[in-house]
Amino acid sequence: MRKKIVAGNWKMNKVLDEAIALTSELVNMAHDEVTNDAEIILCPPAIYLSTIQKYIENAPHFSVAAQNVSDKLSGAFTGEIAAPMLQSIGVKYVLVGHSERRQYFGETNALLAEKVNVSLAHGISPIFCCGESLDQRQNEDYIGFVKNQISESLFHLSAEQILSVIIAYEPIWAIGTGLTATSEQAQEMHAALRGHLAGKYGEEVANEISILYGGSVTAASAPELFSAPDIDGGLVGGASLKSREFTNIIKAR
Ligand SMILES: O=C(CO)COP(=O)(O)O
């Protein structure tokens, strides 16, 4: 059975006190809502990872993810954070290929394949983000585009390795815009991506991989999105910064 996952990507938000307050509120509120098949992943700015880990210590369904990792293992790369460093503080997940990193930091499918490799080699599961722009949705084979992101960054992996990857479909036109994909639009893509994974790794493996939806998810839109058969939870941005709203999204999963 694949896991239901709700992840909150805080992006570059919150100072320390606010990050701690949000985490404490979430742990208190979500306490009764989690069951054994679920996982809540908080993705704070890297500077707070160790602190947030302490605040979730007694909340077994919570974990943290880094928002980024270097493709290099060590050396003269000022400002970067390496997979062995994340591993050394017990981080189990990392976002790889968020569209903001692709767009503002020029991350390519080939670079992301390297980031996936270094993460897996250090026991960290990549949450691999993919998704098309509005222009691509309107003018191109948008499903083919997203499938290609997955082939180019993930299809060198073995079946055993791909089982450690979580996929997050985040259409760029829905990120931070208030324009959520409908559950039909999201389900269409998720089913296509699962089919793509099945073509490469077989149905049994594809059925074990969690595919999350991200893009303006709110407590109002989550129940319908999460009830679609191939949507296994969400990667939430803005709404993950508010404890009540995010808790209600967790409840919807
Ligand atoms: O980019 C996202 C999560 O990674 C989605 O952000 P929003 O939920 O703010 O649209």
UniProtKB/TrEMBL annotation:
Which Pfam families is this protein grouped with? TIM (PF00121)
Where does it localize?
Cytoplasm
Give the main location. cytoplasm
Q: Which UniProt keywords apply?
A: Cytoplasm, Gluconeogenesis, Glycolysis, Isomerase
> Which Enzyme Commission number(s) are on file for it?
5.3.1.1
Q: Which PROSITE patterns match?
A: TIM_1, TIM_2
Per the record, what is one GO cellular component? cytosol
Can the keyword Isomerase be found in this entry's annotation? yes
The pathway entry for this protein reads as:
Carbohydrate biosynthesis; gluconeogenesis; Carbohydrate degradation; glycolysis; D-glyceraldehyde 3-phosphate from glycerone phosphate: step 1/1
Q: Which residues form the active site?
A: H98 (electrophile), E170 (proton acceptor)
Classify the source by domain of life: Bacteria
Its GO biological process annotations read: gluconeogenesis; glyceraldehyde-3-phosphate biosynthetic process; glycerol catabolic process; glycolytic process
Q: Which GO terms describe its molecular function?
A: triose-phosphate isomerase activity
Look up keyword Mitochondrion and say if it applies: no
Q: Which reaction does it catalyse?
A: D-glyceraldehyde 3-phosphate = dihydroxyacetone phosphate
Q: Where does substrate bind?
A: N9, W10, K11, G176, S216, G237, G238
Family in the record? Belongs to the triosephosphate isomerase family.
Subunit details: Homodimer.
Q: What does this protein do?
A: Involved in the gluconeogenesis. Catalyzes stereospecifically the conversion of dihydroxyacetone phosphate (DHAP) to D-glyceraldehyde-3-phosphate (G3P).
What's this protein's name? Triosephosphate isomerase
Q: Which organism is it from?
A: Dyadobacter helix
The gene coding this protein: tpiA
